[in-house]
Amino acid sequence: MPRNPRNQIYPANEDLPAARGGGPLVRLWRIRTELLMLAALALFTLTVLGATREGQWVPFVLLTSAISVPAVTRTGRNWITAHFWCVVSRHRLQRVCLETTMHTRAGRIPLVLWITPTTTGEKALILTRAGICAEEFEAYSEEIAAACWARSVNVYRHRTRAHLLIVEIVRRDEVPGAASPGLDRLYGRHAWVSLRPDLEEPPDLRTPVMVPQVG
């Protein structure tokens, strides 16, 4: 079966610049989760050291309990695992864009505006660049699924704003209670269109609401 022509949108003999990760602000945005975790860890360490030096053990006990108690409960472990996979999938999506032709001629890749857990995996809201559309993500769905170590990937485009799309990563059977409201409450069922005729619209998306403008 021949590959979708969107998998190779640039002529083979065209000398294109190498894909790049963007400027400093864009790079910081992409590692925002890791930076926040490092800042929280540094604050926690400084607080604990200051409390123990002054002989105040109550703050130390409270802080360690706030971290350890959620980790030993099923709900806490599920939350940590679900958000860990969100971070992994965000980086893997960016890597697929860099390694394929899902970037502009200047080397800029789409922005992952937000990614949230679902009952079957993750769901990412993506802002495309000029020259890239939702159909290209659909053409690369198998590559995205392989990069994210998932079963499959579903792509949905916004009905009125073609530069917005959702990439749904399916990595497991449905797990009740594993999802976060996230995108499902911000964006309604009728706001998104599946790119596969045999695939219905996301069953877990609610009543449509106004989509915020993206500058």
What does this protein structure show overall?
It is a single chain. With 215 residues, the chain is of the alpha+beta class. It folds into two domains: 25-72, no CATH class; 88-210, Threonyl-tRNA Synthetase, Chain A, domain 2 (2-Layer Sandwich). Helix content is 41%, strand content 14%. Strands 1-2-4-3-5 form a five-stranded antiparallel beta sheet. Strand 3 and strand 4 form a beta hairpin. The protein is elongated, with a radius of gyration of 20 Å. It starts with 23 loop residues before the first helix and ends in a 21-residue tail after the last strand. The model is unreliable at 203-215 (pLDDT under 50).
End-to-end distance: 40 Å
What would you call the shape? elongated
- Any guess at the CATH architecture of the largest domain? 2-Layer Sandwich
Q: Specify the helix fraction band.
A: 40-55%
Strand arrangement, major sheet: 1-2-4-3-5
Low-confidence stretches: 203-215
H and E order? HHHHEEHHEEHE
Residue-averaged pLDDT: 74
Give the key terms.
single chain; 215 residues; alpha+beta; Threonyl-tRNA Synthetase, Chain A, domain 2; 7 helices; 14% strand
Task: Please sum up the structure shown.
With 215 residues, the chain is of the alpha+beta class. The chain contains seven helices and five strands, in the order ααααββααββαβ. The protein has a five-stranded antiparallel β-sheet.
